[in-house]
């Protein structure tokens, strides 16, 4: 009989037959979910000789929800995920320039899933546009509930927009809006609390996984009180709460100002030799260059919502593309988590049984690891590695590989199951 996953004193208690809600997703969602869930089920069955089994519970969101209930994100879906704690989803479509706001973002906000965790590593044999994709081994901690993604926007020409612009011009003395009559306005909240909880999660991950550095990525030179605030609060929480486990560039600068460069270099070298994590920062534009030119220098990365979105897809490209880019949205305090691929609904491939199911499948691997079902997770990871090495791949890899056999999405899943 299926049971609920619960959280007790901050620890997940996972029964052998947990109920896990899933959202099938729009566009390519059904193809990738049907493929990935078969592989997950087969791996769990094999790893535990049938003693464990996930009871999947479909919950609706997106087009399927609208067609069935008249709502894009029914309250029942939120209630079920709230109740069962852990869920997994396919991608959901967001119209551009109007229409409904993102359901993907709404799920993260409504359940306060404040960390978007996106690990990026290279699998042997996966084609890549860079010379040494194996040098990329980063874990992105993307703030998931605020920034420009909070969705506070006012369309040009509307009374609300005019009210904001009038307020800025008449009450705040703003005279820098170049074309006030035709400007759309977006508001970017970035808070101390939001930054601190994200950076805490990133540092705790770095400690647990023995990762040597954490980089705070921001554009604080331009957006001084939002992105600059993120940098300032990030360093402050690292020093205040993890002072005996980290050394920061902020501390380096302070020692340098007080005692000179040599003393600062020595303090940093001593700290790293004693196993402390180096917490540093990078401005977002140069970061996007350096992840290409010097990927070895980056490890755990913490950043705000929009930067994290850009960085996720850019880094995915370096290790084979968005077809193999998993992710998770997590609230480490409540225990809620929704696992999902980094990519979207790829509408041109809808219903073609063509695309790579690896992103949602590897999101499933993250989920299994989160549940402590590492044996099943490891079986899938090993199967993905060996299947790709055998050059039996979906179109995205086949077009970049010599001598590959291109298979459909569902056939790739069959191959993965065979190789478990
Ligand atoms: N979390 C979510 O649910 C997300 C939803 N979206 C939404 O998805 C919709 C489409 O967005 P779009 O910008 O086109 O981005 P997508 O990520 O959906 O697709 C862009 C391109 O990425 C490649 N791709 C995506 N998924 C796969 C896969 N599984 N296997 C292989 N290749 C893949 C394809 O490349 P190629 O053309 O080279 O073959 C595809 O054309 C939008 O409505 C957007 O808002 C976007 C991102 C995340
Ligand atoms: O919600 C969307 O449509 C896009 C979200 C996105 O790109 C992401 O979370 O990476
Ligand atoms: Mg994105």
From TrEMBL:
Q: Which Pfam families match?
A: Iso_dh (PF00180)
Single Gene Ontology BP annotation:
tricarboxylic acid cycle
Q: Which residues carry this modification: N6-succinyllysine?
A: 89, 231
* Cofactor needs: Mg(2+); Mn(2+)
Q: How does it assemble?
A: Homodimer.
Q: What does this protein do?
A: Catalyzes the oxidative decarboxylation of isocitrate to 2-oxoglutarate and carbon dioxide with the concomitant reduction of NADP(+).
Protein name (record): Isocitrate dehydrogenase [NADP]
């Amino acid at each position: 009989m299926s049971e609920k996953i619960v959280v007790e004193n901050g620890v997940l208690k996972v029964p052998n037959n947990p109920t896990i809600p899933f959202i099938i997703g729009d566009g390519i969602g059904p193809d990738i979910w049907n493929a990935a869930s078969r592989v997950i089920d087969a791996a769990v069955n094999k790893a535990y000789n049938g003693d464990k089994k996930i009871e999947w519970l479909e919950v609706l969101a997106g087009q399927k929800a609208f067609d069935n209930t008249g709502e894009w994100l029914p309250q029942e879906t939120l209630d079920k995920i709230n109740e069962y704690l852990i869920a997994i989803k396919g991608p959901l479509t967001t119209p551009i320039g109007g229409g409904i706001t993102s359901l993907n973002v709404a799920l993260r906000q409504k359940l306060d899933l404040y960390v978007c965790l996106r690990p990026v590593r290279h699998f042997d044999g996966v084609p890549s546009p860079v010379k040494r994709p194996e040098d990329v081994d980063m874990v992105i901690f993307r703030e998931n509930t605020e920034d420009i993604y909070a969705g506070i926007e006012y369309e040009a020409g509307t009374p609300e927009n005019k009210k904001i612009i009038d307020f800025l011009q008449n009450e705040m003395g703003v005279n820098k809006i170049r074309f006030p009559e035709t400007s759309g306005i977006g508001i970017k909240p970035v808070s101390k609390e939001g930054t601190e909880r994200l950076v805490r999660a990133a540092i705790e991950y770095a400690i647990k996984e023995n990762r040597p550095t954490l980089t705070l990525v921001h554009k604080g030179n331009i957006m001084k009180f939002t992105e600059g605030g993120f940098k300032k609060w990030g360093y402050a929480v690292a020093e205040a709460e993890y002072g005996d486990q980290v050394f920061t560039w902020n501390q380096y600068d302070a020692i340098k100002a007080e005692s000179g460069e040599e003393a600062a270099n020595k303090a940093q070298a001593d700290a790293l030799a004693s196993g402390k994590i180096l917490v540093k920062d990078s401005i977002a534009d140069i970061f996007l260059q350096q992840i290409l030119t010097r990927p070895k220098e980056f490890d755990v990365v913490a950043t705000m919502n929009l930067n994290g979105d850009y960085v996720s897809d850019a880094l995915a490209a370096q290790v084979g593309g968005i077809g193999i880019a998993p992710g998770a949205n997590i609230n480490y305090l409540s225990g809620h988590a929704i696992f999902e691929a980094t990519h979207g609904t790829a509408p041109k491939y809808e219903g073609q049984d063509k695309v790579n199911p690896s992103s949602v499948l590897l999101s499933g691997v993250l989920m299994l690891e989160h549940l402590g079902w590492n044996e099943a997770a490891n079986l899938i990871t090993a199967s993905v590695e060996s299947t790709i090495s055998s050059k039996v791949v979906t179109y995205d890899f086949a077009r970049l590989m010599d001598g590959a056999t291109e298979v459909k999405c569902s056939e790739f899943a069959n191959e993965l199951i065979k190789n478990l």
